[in-house]
Specification:
The chain is an alpha/beta fold. It is built from nine helices and nine strands. It has one domain (2-212): Rossmann fold, CATH 3.40.50.
Length: 218
């Protein structure tokens, strides 16, 4: 298996033979001892022969790639099938943090989930609801724990905050803190407090095996 845009290796399965691909030396330096071997390269130009792997994975990373479609095509080139966890921008305003406090998110470039699936040569699109006690630290993880977004350490682990202009982030934090202190946030979102999970637009794209794709195309 190849893990493209592997970062620090947080998502790599321990029960598989994995080769990681990551372009950032800073990320590579944070990989723990014993992590999968890493190749420094970009998703758009993977240094592997066609069909080198049984599977390729990419988890919440494709929005960082310079040419997303080219990277997704590379996943299909080097592996029999691909599994990609990404975000459907049609859900942008479904998340209170973005809709009410982080309008700059809407200005970031993006692709529809159908466009991403097409770049993979077709894929099943599977909703991935986020549990209320999610232990990861991505943007939607704290949807029922709004105080977390006031913590600069939490924001430092969420790439969106680095992509939005600093003034927008500062305004977001000020407004959210004020609404939490006044109780306005809980008044508006009392319905969320009783939910165990929430669909915020995270989607798992699962491509068919290469043999099946070739057969269907024929």
């Amino acid at each position: 298996m190849v893990n493209v845009g592997a970062g620090t290796g947080s998502y790599e399965p321990a029960d598989r033979d994995v080769v990681a691909v990551e372009p950032s030396e800073a990320m590579i330096a944070q990989r723990p001892a014993g992590a999968a071997p890493v190749v420094r390269a970009h998703a758009e130009a993977l240094p592997f022969a066609d069909g080198s792997f049984d599977a390729a994975m990419a988890v919440l990373t494709d929005h960082h790639w310079g040419e997303r479609c080219a990277g997704l095509r590379e996943l299909r080139r080097v592996a029999r099938r691909a599994v990609v966890l990404t975000f459907d921008p049609a859900f942008t305003d479904a998340f209170w943090l973005v809709a009410e406090y982080l309008p700059g998110f809407r200005e970031l470039p993006g692709m529809t989930v159908d466009e991403l699936a097409a770049c993979l040569g077709g894929a099943d699109i599977v909703p991935v609801p986020i549990p209320a006690d999610c232990t990861d630290g991505f943007l939607g993880a704290f949807w029922r724990r709004p105080e977390a977004y006031l913590d600069p350490r939490v924001r430092a682990g969420i790439s969106v905050f680095a992509r939005v202009p600093p003034g927008g982030v500062d305004a977001c934090v000020r407004a959210l803190r004020a609404d939490l202190e006044s109780g306005a946030w809980r008044e508006r979102h009392a319905d969320l407090l009783g939910l165990d999970e929430l669909d915020l637009g995270y989607r798992l794209l699962v491509s068919p095996p290469a043999a099946a794709r070739t057969s269907a195309a024929a």
